[in-house]
Amino acid sequence: MSASTTDPAADLDRVAGLLRDVPDFPTPGILFWDLSALLADGAGLAATTRLLAGGAEHGADVVVGIEARGFLLGAAVAQSLGVGVVAVRKQGKLPVVAASQSYDLEYGSATLELPADVLRPGARALLVDDVLATGGTAAAACALVEGAGARVAGVSVVLELPALRGRDRLAGRPVHALLAK
Ligand code: AMP
Predict the structure, then answer these.
(1) Given the CA of residue 134, which atom of ligand 1 is nearest to it?
(2) What would the mean pLDDT of 99-124 be, rounded to a whole number?
(3) Which atom of ligand 1 is found nearest the CA of 136?
(4) Which residues lie across from 147 on neighbouring strands?
(5) CA angle (61 as vertex; 63, 45 as ends), nearest 5
(6) How large is the average pLDDT for residues 142-147?
(7) Residues with Cβ within 6 A of ligand 1?
(8) What is the pLDDT of residues 126-137, one digit of tens each?
(9) Can you spell out the DSSP letters for 116-142?
(10) Could you give the domains of the chain?
(11) Tens digit of pLDDT for each residue in 21-32?
(12) Can you tell me the distance from the alpha carbon of 60 to that of 126, in angstroms, rounded to the nearest whole number?
């Protein structure tokens, strides 16, 4: 088989085969899904990009990548769709901020920020991240996008952890997960 394919089933097999699960990282009891090998594999990255781009069923005007692995994947997806990419960042990284959104973590909270003057009102935004777990991160990113007057065309992730019910926090937004574990 060639290293590159446009067969979605073959793309999915390649993606699944390059994911690595690491027990007890970053804390005991957490099974961490590591995408390093997938990102490092040219055909794997291309397959992932093609599949994630499918999350914008009705088109997208811009991709929004969520820090940090969402930046890598989001830029690749944006290129394949022929649109630009906006980086939603953790608090304190952006010099000019349009809005901030806090969300709960298992212990404590975190804040995401949207850069100013980059998201056009009415734009259809495809959000991209690596893993959808509890959904807090993606929900905060959706709130930032919608708060700026843009629309969430979809949320594309490589992997969903359905037991954590992240989809429930994204009600109304189309979620496109390549794999579920
Ligand atoms: P959540 O807000 O709970 O949906 O968490 C999603 C964010 O945390 C994503 O940006 C992921 O990169 C990261 N994340 C959460 N759980 C995991 C996990 N088990 N393995 C890898 N990354 C994770």
Answers:
(1) 3
(2) 94
(3) 2
(4) none
(5) 40
(6) 98
(7) 30-33, 66, 69, 129-138, 166
(8) 999 999 999 999
(9) TT-S-TT-EEEEEEEEESSSHHHHHHH
(10) 58-180 (3.40.50.2020)
(11) 999 999 999 999
(12) 6
